[in-house]
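Bumping my old thread because nobody answered last time. Still need a sequence for this structure:
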């Protein structure tokens, strides 16, 4: 039977990491602003779909949606005994480099079935300015298979964090969370493309609002 919340140990670790590290850094060092948090359902399956400009994006998104978010992680990380256990508790699921999209899809669906929110970067990689130019269909396909709503999240300013070196700069960060988008009616390409474009337009419109 599918769960509607994350495993208890993962919730404990999430809140520990959020309140001791991520939230203080976001609100002080990065002068973070969060808009639209009331749009996030606190129970049930959910696919977070976002833009991507920085390695800092996953923990920032998890912090702002107030639920742990499961992200793909390269399979090699799961070969380190202690690290493997910790990142599984935090919701990461392994994906092999060069593996088929089918394997990644199955891993995401399993995470949803275990009560996790699944996070997907709509373009699949980082962009220089944080806008989305070439959205992929993966998030819509996951949502269609699980019949889970999509939650558009926009990060503004994260591309500046490491813009001039390896040490994080105190760049101002804004996170905007949009209204839920219904999953595609089916997994056919027409429906997937329509939903993907809805997500892309929403995120880019949120990004255009700036700080």
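Sorry it took so long. Here it is:
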């Amino acid at each position: 039977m599918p769960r509607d919340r994350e495993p208890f140990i993962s919730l404990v670790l999430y809140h520990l990491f959020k309140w001791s590290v991520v939230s203080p850094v976001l609100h002080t060092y990065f002068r973070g602003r969060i808009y639209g948090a009331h749009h996030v359902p606190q129970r049930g399956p959910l696919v977070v779909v976002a833009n991507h400009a920085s390695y800092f994006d996953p923990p920032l998104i998890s912090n702002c949606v107030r639920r742990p978010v499961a992200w793909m992680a390269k399979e090699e990380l799961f070969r380190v005994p202690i690290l493997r256990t910790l990142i599984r508790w935090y919701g990461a699921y392994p994906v092999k480099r060069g593996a088929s999209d089918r394997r990644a899809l199955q891993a995401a669906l399993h995470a949803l079935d275990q009560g996790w929110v699944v996070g997907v970067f709509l373009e699949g990689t980082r962009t220089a300015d944080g806008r989305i130019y070439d959205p992929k269909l993966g998030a819509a396909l996951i949502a269609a298979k699980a019949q889970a709503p999509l939650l558009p999240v926009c990060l503004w300013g994260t591309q500046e964090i490491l813009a001039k070196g390896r040490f994080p700069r105190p760049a101002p960060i804004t996170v905007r969370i949009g209204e839920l988008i219904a999953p595609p009616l089916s997994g056919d390409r027409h429906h997937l493309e329509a939903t993907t474009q809805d997500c892309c337009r929403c995120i880019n419109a949120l990004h255009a609002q700036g700080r």
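The CA atoms of residues 63 and 95 lie 23 Å apart. Let me know if any region looks off to you.
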